[in-house]
Design brief:
Helices cover 32% and strands 14% of the residues. It has six helices and four strands, in the order H-H-E-H-E-H-E-H-E-H. It has a four-stranded antiparallel sheet with strand order 1-2-4-3, with helices on both faces. Helix 2 runs antiparallel to helix 4. The chain starts with a helix and ends in a 17-residue tail after the last helix. The model has no long low-confidence stretch (mean pLDDT 95).
């Protein structure tokens, strides 16, 4: 499968079977995150694998978007390890963690594992429930598992704006504020 086919195939899975993810597939997914590019190659990503019954129950107190997945990845970054832009001290950790998360999501898809990116969680509850040190920042939860038989992409999954609504060359002349209204 070429990359665009993989990217188009990927969709947010919100309904999972009870089948556990094999260690070999989880290892591939985690390896895809490990090799992801990060600013200055500082590799500030820190991934917490939540696969025990106790951890998954704790997760349910932190977000309504757990989807009863048999496994979830909590993607964080270490503020003491992330690169800071010299011009304004902007921390690139959230970008690095996002790239890591995306590579793991795409590897999961290629491996037949369904998942979704969840940003709707209580970061303070995540911190206390999973005893995150102060220097770790939670960025994303990725519930994952084998899709349930009746799992399907959201009805709007294939609705995408045309390139001329989102891509501009050399200047933003003609750009409109807000969401584009035309497809």
């Amino acid at each position: 499968m070429d990359f665009l086919q993989l990217a188009k195939k990927r969709h947010s899975v919100r309904k999972f079977s009870n089948q556990k993810i094999e260690k070999e597939k989880l290892d591939l997914i985690l390896e895809a995150g490990r090799i992801a590019p990060t600013a200055a190659n500082y590799q500030p990503q820190r991934i917490l694998v939540l696969d025990s019954e106790e951890s998954l129950e704790k997760l349910k107190t932190c977000t309504p978007c757990h989807f009863h997945a048999p496994l979830a990845l909590l993607v964080c970054y270490d503020t003491s390890a992330s690169w800071k832009r010299s011009y304004d001290n902007e921390d690139t950790g959230i970008t690095d963690a996002s790239i890591v998360a995306l590579q793991m999501i795409l590897q999961a898809t290629e491996s037949g594992i369904g998942c979704t990116w969840v940003a709707h969680f209580d970061p303070q509850l995540i911190r206390t429930s999973f005893e995150l040190p102060d220097y770790l920042v939670p960025v994303a939860l990725i519930p994952m598992g084998y899709p349930a038989v009746d799992s399907a992409p959201n009805l709007t999954h294939e609705n995408r704006f045309s390139l001329n609504r989102t891509v501009f060359f050399n200047s933003f002349d003609g750009i409109s504020k807000g969401k584009p209204s035309e497809k």
